[in-house]
């Protein structure tokens, strides 16, 4: 079960957040910033919800930023979502530059808090821990060369690829290679945003424009000023909102919900989707004019199974060493290595990373064996077995089967299972898939 830690000196705020988030995972609360490091050691949360001010009357966020620096410097740091007051846009931007994956303004609608933490859980790897795009296959070398080439421009880039191939890593590399590198990179996961909140999230809203809008709030376009806005899972944006996004991109201005005054924006937009290329040009799903706006350059990130055994082995060694920490990483036995190289990796590099984490935690022998990685090898002949009636095991198998059938496409797998993407992500976390 994913772990969420809330650090806020206001017990009422912390309690409200804990209640809103309890169905997403195990939620722990600390009220004193002095307890933070011990709590991180003890709980090892996936997401930290961090308040920025701890002194009565303080609002500069200095205490929060100092804590944030300490947290993101840790090995396997949690994804950090910072909590700011509505007027503290500048502080939120500084926190994003400092490695927070997102921010939420107080007071929040619960729906928004849940969506925000859910997206952070799905992403999990914190911004600063995102490293190099590894891989020496011709496909990966060419991808890195393209990133260096288009990174330096202002061109909109559409990043295509299955789930877990590294689209967000590509977006971060493009941002780092751009003249906007000193500005923030703000990622918005369209897949986890409730439809009713998309516009206010992207464009902001004016106080009183809807029931929960108790204060005015800047949208993502404004918060990412002078930086890059990464629109992830763009294929999930409903058509009416696509029209508004297109207008914002064309006019380079946004109009907050409930306002009639457009605000100029200065962002570079990167977008990503796991929708197969053949389906992208279906006008019932995607406005072609928006697509043409976003795909000045198209970068295709290949599935892991197409990168060759050397890339798989390189990634295995990288992540096993990463999870071993200071200890020397064990070797992988020859049979396991051959099966890992031949495995289809429907969840791509994310699946490989999680398999390495699992193996590091659970392996007991002197070398890693195939069983340590917890993968189901569909190329091996299935041993005749009594069908299990264990509900958890059945659920795990159903999720694996749906992922395999959907070739790692989360939206499609969720449809096959008849659950929402968010519910599928929770099950992936639960079963360590
Ligand atoms: N080439 C790579 N080298 C090292 N790590 C990688 C590589 N590609 C992906 N990863 C790691 O795999 C995980 C998934 O990557 P990322 O989130 O960028 O994928 P994605 O394509 O954006 O996934 P989704 O479609 O589900 O949002 C991350 O932990 C990332 O650091």
Characterise this structure.
Helix content is 42%, strand content 14%. The protein contains 18 helices and 14 strands. It starts with a strand and ends with a helix. It folds into four domains: 3-124, Rossmann fold; 130-302, 3-Layer(aba) Sandwich (Rossmann fold), CATH 3.40.50.300; 304-384, Helicase, Ruva Protein, domain 3 (Orthogonal Bundle); 386-433, Homeodomain-like (Arc Repressor Mutant, subunit A, Orthogonal Bundle), CATH 1.10.10.60. The longest helix has 16 residues, at 309-324. Helix 6 packs across helix 7 (167-176), helix 13 crosses helix 15 and helix 16 (391-405) packs across helix 17 (410-417). The model is unreliable at 125-130 (pLDDT under 50). A hairpin with an 8-residue loop joins strand 11 (253-254) and strand 12. The site of adenosine-5'-triphosphate (ATP) has 18 residues, from helix 7 and helix 15. Adenosine-5'-triphosphate binds at residues 125, 130, 133-135, 161, 163-169, 232, 274, 349-350, 353.
How would you name the CATH homologous superfamily of the largest domain? P-loop containing nucleotide triphosphate hydrolases
Q: Give the ligands present.
A: adenosine-5'-triphosphate
User: Which spans of ≥5 residues are poorly predicted at pLDDT below 50?
Assistant: 125-130
Inertia-based shape: globular
Give the CATH topology of the largest domain: Rossmann fold
> Which structural class matches the secondary elements?
alpha/beta
Give the name of the CATH architecture of the largest domain: 3-Layer(aba) Sandwich
Largest sheet: spatial strand order? 2-1-3-4-5
Keywords: ATP-binding, Coiled coil, Nucleotide-binding, Phosphoprotein, Transcription, Transcription regulation
Protein name: Sigma-54-dependent transcriptional regulator
Pfam family, one: HTH_8
Organism: Pelomonas candidula
